[in-house]
Amino acid sequence: MTPPVIALIIVLALLLICVIAVVSIYNGIITKRNRVDNAWQNIEANLQRRADLIPNLVETVKGYAKHEKGIFETVAEARNASIAAKTPHEAEAADNALTGALRQLFAVAEAYPDLKANSNFESLQEQLSDTENRLVYARQSFNDCVMTYNTAIQTFPGNIVAGVAHFEPKDGYHVESPSDKEVPKVEF
After folding, report:
1. What is the CATH number of the domain that holds 146?
2. CA 125 to CA 58: how far, in whole Å?
3. I need a surface site. Which of 42, 111, 145, 157 has the fewest CB within 10 A?
4. Which of 11-25, 103-117, 166-180 has the highest mean pLDDT?
């Protein structure tokens, strides 16, 4: 083989390696973005499960605490906002409002010993607690996926591929207001 042919083969081999690397990086970013989307769908599924449990919980509490009408309206409004949320940011805000409303509902329930002993209420409370635990895990998983995706598109050489392909960073799930981070105080 002549030197120009060898040089051409080397250039083509290097070009092929570069193409394979770019395709691999691109596919890796797509995979990470899909994991973010899947993790968000897990959060939405758990939010829906919680929203489905809330009417039963409210009806059970209503039977014991008829004069606590304001809290029932607050919970209903927060639940409806949670169901109506279309974007992750809307869902976060609605979720935070619903969590606060549920704290108030459980604070009301503390004032009624017969309600706390009701088997239906206990079952609903246990299911809701299980759903809340699932939500915590789903949020952690979502934030991990977001971090992995954002790292992939912001570090070299992924940032070059991400810039050319117009991949945008994603926002993680976070608590909106400082009061949502505080442990609720129940006083009678």
Report:
1. 1.20.1440.20
2. 11
3. 157
4. 11-25
